Amino acid sequence: MFIVSASLCAVCCPKVCIVGAGPAGFYTAQHLIKSRQDVEVDIYERLPVPFGLVRFGVAPDHPEVKNVINTFTQTAQHSRCSFYGNVNVGTDVSVKELQQAYHAVVLSYGAEGNRRMGVPGEDLAGVHAAKDFVGWYNGLPDNRKVFGLSTILFFILGQGNVALDVARILLSPMDMLKKTDITQPALDLLAESRIRRVLIVGRRGPMQIACTIKEVREMVNLPDTRPEMVAADFKGIAEAVKEVPRPRKRLTELLLKTALDVPTEKEQEKRSKASRVWGFRFFRSPVEVLPAPDLSRAAAIRLAVNRLEGSGEGASAVPTGEVEDVPCGLVISSIGYKSLPIDPLLPFDSRKAIVPNTMGRVQKTAGVYCSGWLKTGPTGVIGTTMNNSFDTARALLEDMDSGALDVSSAKPGSQGVTPLLEKRGVKPVEFSDWEKIDNEEIKRGVAMGKPREKLLSVDEMLHVART
Amino acid sequence: MAAAAAVRSSMGLTLTLSRVIPGCGTCHLYRLNSCVGGLAGASRTGQLHRFGTLTRHLHSTTGLNHSEEGSSNAEDPEDVVNVVYIDRSGQRIPVKAKVGDNVLYLAHRHGIELEGACEASLACSTCHVYVSSDHFNKLPEPDEREDDMLDMAPMLQENSRLGCQIILTPELEGIELTLPTVTRNFYVDGHVPKPH
Predict the structure, then answer these.
(1) Is the confidence at residue B60, as pLDDT, over 80?
(2) A384: which chain B residues are within 8 Å (Cβ-Cβ)?
(3) C-alpha dihedral over A40, A43, A48, A54, to 10 degrees?
(4) How far apart are CA A205 and CA A192, in angstroms?
(5) Which residue numbers delimit the 2Fe-2S ferredoxin-type domain (chain B) (predicted)?
(6) Cα dihedral sign for A226, A227, A230, A234?
(7) Cα(A165)–Cα(A158) distance, rounded to whole angstroms?
(8) Tell me, what's the pLDDT at A149?
(9) Is there a contact between A46 and A25 (Cβ–Cβ < 8 Å)?
(10) Are A220 and A347 within one domain?
């Protein structure tokens, strides 16, 4: 039995609920609220704190990227938007119950899982997913496990921006890191680390590298480090680079310069004094992680040597048959995040790990939409997610206008959900509660000379939220 | 006293240029090494975020049109720069602006849907605009960091710039700024997965 909403609108307001309070959720909400004066949006979030990967994914030394939080805060504080943190859709409330309470449901919960390499030895101690490492230094409550950083050589498999973030955080001077919002436990461990060499390994060649120029420039300019590349990996690249689009061209030219050019005097001095080394290695795929004699942990990685078939973005890596065994104690696999299904009744494409959809409309499921990485797969920066989310919002609005989405009868919205949560012992965290957490983190940060000192456990977050 | 007054007016200028303290690169004071706030020498890391936090409490949070507090009311005709925004539906929106206005925040003041996720700090490409060919060459060369961010923008063209880096001068009278239309088919046809 639903209680009819006691809101002010005489005719029913369309009520939309969004699952996930990261960039996709907030940008979808923003567009809906801006486009129609009667839409009300509720955002549900598993954690007590909002902002998703902006808080837990963006590197601590990229604070400007986090400025988008100000935009999201304005959305959350809008009279027609409400935030419900600490609510796990799928366990605390089902998607079906949300569909009954709201005119539309938008799934924007991103990618919580990891793509596996699919090689023997992947689960040995010393092998980690980049996502877990990033979650660790960014204070994600799920990733409190401590990393052992006592080896000298670190392999990162994958050459996207996440891989470069990990390399940069591992090799950054302490006096740069200690002024960021990196968690104190991570900072303490990094201060003691013996890491001196980080190799970032990719299956294909320099012209297929997945990272972007800003991140490569940051590695080149990182104090107290020098680059170490294999000149032979760059054979033929200087000619091939002439014909490609501007972004690929500029990035490749930077790689060529770093790998092959004679350095300036100033750069040469920096390199000779550097205590840490980083480099890209190309044309290598992991085929096995080899264990130590007692089988307890990783001791070496077996890499297949590839050659390239085709050229450009679509070139593929073909094994040559040659393999190399490289001793190493620590391997980070940075080959992609992966979305997980939230509810068995919803369609899910387990091959692509996305919710099957057409322009954000979930297939075979009227009234359910998706935005962000769950819609298109786990790639893209804030701007990509923004456009993606605006597109989904437009599809939803179109459906409201055309009648494909029926908004003619009243729906209870959150008033149909909060009684269920109460019955189940779930107490949502409101946006004003998050602001208490926010203020506490900033206060603790001031004492440490950092923008904030993050609370690291859900319990602690809830404790501060409830006071 | 004079110094304090200078700082106050320079802060006024800074807040006028943008809704929050902008990335240092856009501020005249920083370029002239006259920034009294001491940011000129400080590391960007951490400092900028702290200022972001500070000004979060300063700007208004009503509504979603991200409107600014308001620039000075001086109507000196010498100062006026006429600008035309062409929005994503092709509609032409003429705006009477002033010398020193920032194209991104000017758009916000006039309700034009130009996003600025990173708040003018050259960490995103959401304020990507196309500049009219007559005016494109009158703009100062982009910073390498702007070019790096432009590389990430969908449908990059020869006349692409980031709106947050365009400060109006008298020479830019009549400038037309077109917002790129990101089509629905962007993800369907020939989509190249973007890095992250």
Answers:
(1) no
(2) 154, 194, 196
(3) -120
(4) 34
(5) 82-183
(6) negative
(7) 12
(8) 82
(9) no
(10) no
Q: What integer pLDDT is reported at residue B63 of this predicted model?
A: 42
Please name which of A370, A393, A428, A458 lies closest in space to residue A84, comparing C-alpha atoms. Answer: A428
Q: Which residue of B has its CA nearest to A358?
A: B188
Chain A to chain B Cβ contacts (< 8 Å): 138
Residue pair A181/B120 in contact by the 8 Å Cβ criterion: no
Question: Do B46 and A450 lie within an 8 Å CB cutoff?
Answer: yes
Q: Are A97 and A125 in contact (CB under 8 A)?
A: no
- Say whether pLDDT at A182 is over 90: yes
For chain A, the farthest-separated pair of C-alpha atoms sits apart, in whole angstroms, at: 77
Residue A325 has pLDDT above 80, yes or no: yes
- Residue A85, marked binder: no
Residue A83 within any structural domain of the chain: yes
Residues A160 and A83 in one domain: no
**Domain count of chain A?**
2
Is A203 among the annotated ligand-binding positions?
yes
Asked if the C-beta of A70 comes within 8 angstroms of chain B's C-beta atoms, the answer is: yes
Q: Take residue B185 and report the two structure tokens written for it.
A: 């088919």
What are the tens digits of pLDDT across the range A40-50? 999 999 999 99
Chain A partners within 8 Å of B117 (Cβ): 65, 67-68, 71, 382-383, 386
Please tell me if residue A376 touches chain B, with a CB cutoff of 8 Å: yes
Question: Do A194 and A130 reside in the same domain of the chain?
Answer: yes
pLDDT digits (tens, 9 = 90+) for A363-422: 999 999 999 999 999 999 999 999 999 999 999 999 999 999 999 999 999 999 999 999
- Residues A405-425, buried b or exposed e (16+ Cβ, 10 A)? bebeebbbbbbbbbeebeeee
Domains in chain B, please, with CATH? 80-178 (3.10.20.30)
**A442 interaction partners in chain B (CB closer than 8 Å):** 53
Residue B49: pLDDT over 90: no
CB of B193 within 8 Å of any CB in chain A? Answer: yes
Residue B153 in contact with partner chain A when CB distance is under 8 A: yes
ipTM: 0.92
**Stretch among B14-23, B57-66, B139-148 having the lowest mean pLDDT:** B57-66
Q: Mark yes or no for CB contact B195/A70 under 8 Å.
A: no
Q: If you count them, how many residues does chain B have?
A: 196
- In the block, tokens 């006592």 appear at A150
Q: Tell me if the pTM is above 0.90.
A: no
Q: B46 vs A63: CB contact, 8 Å cut-off?
A: yes
Residue A53 lies in a domain: yes
Q: Please indicate if any CB of chain B lies within 8 Å of the CB of A244.
A: no
Chain B residues with CB under 8 Å of A313 CB are 192
User: With contacts defined as CB-CB under 8 Å, which chain A residues touch B193?
Assistant: 377, 379-380
Query: Per the CB < 8 Å rule, is B156 touching A450?
Result: no
Do A385 and A326 reside in the same domain of the chain? no
Interface touch B124/A251, C-beta < 8 Å: no
Q: Is A382 annotated in some ligand binding site?
A: yes
- Alpha-carbon span A370 to A386, nearest angstrom: 13
- Measured between alpha carbons, how far is residue A216 from residues A256, A305, B21, B170, B192 in Å? 12, 24, 27, 38, 20
Report chain A residues whose CB lies below 8 A from the CB of B56.
Answer: 70, 73
Task: Using a CB–CB cutoff of 8 Å, tell me whether B39 touches chain A.
Answer: no
Query: Could you tell me if A120 and A107 lie in one domain?
Result: no
Helix, strand, coil percent content, chain B, rounded in steps of 5: 35, 15, 55
Do both A54 and A70 map to the same domain?
A: yes
Tokens of B90: 């092709």
Name the residue range of residue A47's domain.
15-112+338-429
- How confident is the model over A271-289, as a mean pLDDT? 97
